[in-house]
Amino acid sequence: MKINESKHGFVVKKKVEVSELNAIMYEMEHIKTHLKLAWLKRDEENKTFGIAFKTLPSDDSGVFHILEHSVLCGSKKYPVKEPFVELMKSSMSTFLNALTFEDKTFYPISSRNNQDFMNLTKVYLDAVFNPLILNKKEIFLQEGWHIEYTEKPTYKGVVLN
Questions:
Q1: Alpha-carbon gap, residue 44 to 112, rounded angstroms
Q2: Range of the domain at 27
Q3: Which residue out of 5, 86, 102, 143 is catalytically annotated?
Q4: Which residue has the higher pLDDT, 83 or 147?
Q5: Is the pLDDT at 12 greater than 90, yes or no?
Q6: Which is catalytic among the residues 17, 68, 86, 148?
Q7: For a surface tag, which of 10, 72, 89, 106 has the fewest beta carbons within 10 Å of its beta carbon?
Q8: Is 29 annotated in the active site?
């Protein structure tokens, strides 16, 4: 690929050799949305994909960590409660997770099998762009921290920040 060449709706902006990885990195930009894409071209059996979003918190409530978990609780195409638990049962993935940092949330996957890799990518993309949480606030409430009153009040929640 060459600088300014268009490929699948993206324009190549930069091409850099990354000698320590024995790779060529292409920095690309989606023509319509200006989404940034970095692609490492290298000989590697493991296929890896990740999508990241800036998530700059205004307080220490842990809201983006809660959203990370909530996004992975089903989507428009895959409306099951825990699609990634189901995927783990049959996938040949070598990595399947999500990570929240101080300033971003990252959803990476990898697999050595082409079909498995494409399936995982489709599920992750639907999860981040069409999550069920948009229509079901209970997902956020379930994943976030909350107080349960039994003999004494206790904090509960899948994500207890």
A1: 9
A2: 1-44
A3: 143
A4: 83
A5: yes
A6: 68
A7: 89
A8: no
Instruction: Tell me how far apart the alpha carbons of residues 83 and 150 are, in angstroms, rounded to a whole number.
Output: 31
How many angstroms separate the Cα of 148 from the Cα of each of 53, 60, 152, 157, 159?
32, 21, 8, 9, 14
pLDDT the model gives residue 160: 64
Gyration radius from the chain CA atoms: 19
Same domain, 33 and 111: no
Note whether residue 161 is domain-resident: no
- Encoding tokens for residue 82? 């825990």
Task: Looking at the structure, tell me whether residues 68 and 110 fall in a common domain.
Answer: yes
pTM: 0.82
- Cα–Cα distance between 32 and 10 in angstroms, integer? 9
When pLDDT is averaged across residues 8-14 and rounded to a whole number, the result is: 96
Question: How far apart are alpha carbons 33 and 141 in whole angstroms?
Answer: 31
Distances (CA, A) of 147 to 1, 68, 150, 156: 55, 21, 10, 6
Residues 63 and 36 occupy one common structural domain = no
Q: Residue 19 has what DSSP assignment?
A: G
Q: Are residues 131 and 85 in the same domain?
A: yes
Going by C-alpha positions, the residue among 119, 125, 69, 116 that lies closest to residue 93 is 116
Structure tokens at 5: 């060449």
Q: pLDDT tens digits, residue range 16-65? A: 999 999 999 999 999 999 999 999 999 999 999 999 999 999 988 888 99
